[in-house]
Design goal:
With 457 residues, this protein is of the alpha/beta class. It has helices at residues 25-40, 66-77, 80-83, 93-105, 121-129, 177-180, 189-201, 227-235, 255-258, 280-285, 292-305, 324-337, 364-386, and strands at 16-21, 44-45, 54-59, 87-92, 111-113, 134-136, 159-163, 165-166, 185-186, 206-210, 242-246, 270-272, 310-317, 341-346, 393-407, 410-416, 422-428, 438-446, 451-455. S-adenosylmethionine binds next to strand 13.
């Protein structure tokens, strides 16, 4: 859902847009921005292709072959064009990467819009409606970058993401992000604080600050403030119950930043710190700017500040030249860190990146086998780590009814611990907590993917 008015609020003749999002949180956030500018232009949202006047695919090109997937999905929707004049658009990294070439190649595509051109979406759609097919994928000026102002009306619910830095300057050798998201630009401190305040006033309890590398926030801003400065300021916004951030580059995770865990009362005890690989050779070829010893030092530092912190990571297996020995180093570091959660991927060459010019020499079957081995090890670690919650009382931020909501006379509520674990708990009809409320829950059961408990106090 993108936060546009629902079907019940529609009036006859109103235009409807369907936005399909593939990929990361950054894309979800961009879909909100697209929804926001179209909302102002009089659109409402639909999730039904048959009802839509405009269908936009917002896609990420970080790992798989999204271009194929998008075109496959659009061609399946093609019969709609015979029934009514529906417009098809592509947005996100794929749009940025291919721009006009995509329009030239796909005759039934009506517009292409890159991440820096979302503000122009209403005009682009209006032009397409009048038969003018447009591809806009130009970068905005890095020094006068214009962030689309946040509209809390399209951020309903108790939790919200807020981009504080766009793009990336790191150029890891496997990664397409700097090419499709552009260079790093930080959102000014005052604007960020104003937006967090707006979100809280609109009823948001938890804000996640978002960026490809939030740790480098502040570079290029007047006075060169740092990310810990920002975190301290945001944490002090009155009424903000929880604060999170993602993603942190380990090379920029300073002692001061890591020391804020366990110190800022509303900074939740959860850190995503992508390792990518455990072998120092592989890390060097990935151009990650740290080795495994430096990474492990960051882990020890944050655990000293906050012993119970939950840690998660990203791992790539089968990077060019990764030997069995290299892979075993990854297993060893993963075992040593003892992560709560892992996102792991088979390496895939991305066009334009440095590594795309190297031989992709780990056979597909070997990549799959390494991924399965790593994931099965992590599953065991996660199962064991979840046991530490048994019998503990946890602060749970209520998100809403659980998937299997009504259980006889009791409602089941879903929320998250500060450590980002999902907790389901039952309450009777008279005492249903509102989304965004903090409830103390005693954990009495550990399931495969979530915790269960009973509210106390
Ligand atoms: N900025 C974050 C960082 O520094 O780790 C994450 C960026 S990326 C959107 C998310 C994850 O996708 C990466 O951490 C990496 O594990 C994975 N990834 C990126 N490029 C990849 C590639 N070519 N093949 C496989 N996985 C990739
Ligand atoms: Fe990609 Fe590296 Fe930037 Fe993360 S830090 S977005 S992996 S280039």
């Amino acid at each position: 859902m993108n936060g546009l008015p629902s079907e019940s609020q529609q009036v006859p003749g109103q235009r409807r847009v369907m936005i399909v999002t593939y990929g990361c949180q950054m894309n979800v956030f961009d879909s909100h921005r697209m929804a926001q500018v179209l909302l102002r232009d009089g659109y409402v949202e639909t999730m039904e292709p048959a009802e839509a006047d405009v269908i936009i695919f917002n896609t990420c090109s970080v790992r798989d072959k999204p271009e194929k997937k998008v075109l496959g999905s659009l061609s399946r929707l093609l019969p709609l064009k015979e029934i009514k004049p529906v417009l098809f658009g592509v947005a996100g990294c794929v749009a940025q990467q291919h721009g006009q070439a995509l329009l030239d190649k796909v005759p039934y595509l009506d517009f292409v819009v890159g991440p820096d051109n979302i503000a122009q979406l209403p005009q682009i759609v209006a032009d397409a409606r009048h038969g003018s097919r447009t591809a806009r994928a130009d970068w905005m000026d890095r020094h006068n970058y214009d962030f689309i102002p946040l509209d809390p009306a399209v951020e309903p619910g108790p939790t919200a993401f807020l981009t504080i830095i766009k793009g990336c300057d790191n150029f890891c050798s496997y990664c397409v992000v700097p090419y499709v998201r552009g260079r790093e630009v930080s959102k000014p401190l005052e604007l960020t604080l104003r937006e967090v305040g707006m979100l809280v006033d609109a009823g948001v309890s938890e804000v996640t600050l978002l960026g490809q590398n939030v740790n480098s926030w502040g570079r290029g801003l007047p006075g060169e403030p740092t990310f810990p400065d920002l975190l301290e300021a945001v944490s002090a916004v009155p009424g903000l119950k929880r604060l999170r951030f993602v993603t942190s580059h380990p090379a920029d995770a300073s002692d001061r930043l890591l020391g804020l865990f366990g110190h800022l009362p509303n900074l939740a005890e959860y850190l995503h710190l992508p390792l990518q690989a455990g072998s120092d050779d592989v890390l060097a070829r990935m151009r990650r700017k740290y080795d495994s010893a430096q990474y492990l030092d960051r882990i020890r530092t944050v655990r000293r500040a906050c012993p119970d912190i939950a840690l998660s990571t990203d791992i790539i297996v089968g990077f060019p030249g990764e030997t069995r020995q290299d892979f075993e180093r990854t297993l060893a570091v993963v075992r040593e860190v003892d992560y709560d959660l892992m996102y792991s991927f088979k390496y895939s060459p991305r066009p334009g990146t440095r590594a795309a010019g190297w031989v992709d020499d780990v056979p597909e079957a070997e990549k799959a086998a390494r991924l399965a081995e790593l994931q099965s090890m992590q599953d065991e670690i996660t199962r064991r780590r979840m046991q530490r919650f048994l019998g503990r009382t946890e602060e749970v931020l209520v998100e809403g009814p659980s998937k299997s909501s009504r259980k006889g006379a009791a409602f089941e509520i879903m929320g998250r611990t500060r450590t980002n674990y999902i907790v389901n708990f039952c309450v009777d009809g008279a005492t249903i907590p509102a989304p965004g409320e903090l409830v103390q829950v005693r954990i009495d059961k550990i399931l495969a993917h979530c915790l269960k408990g009973v509210p106390v106090g």
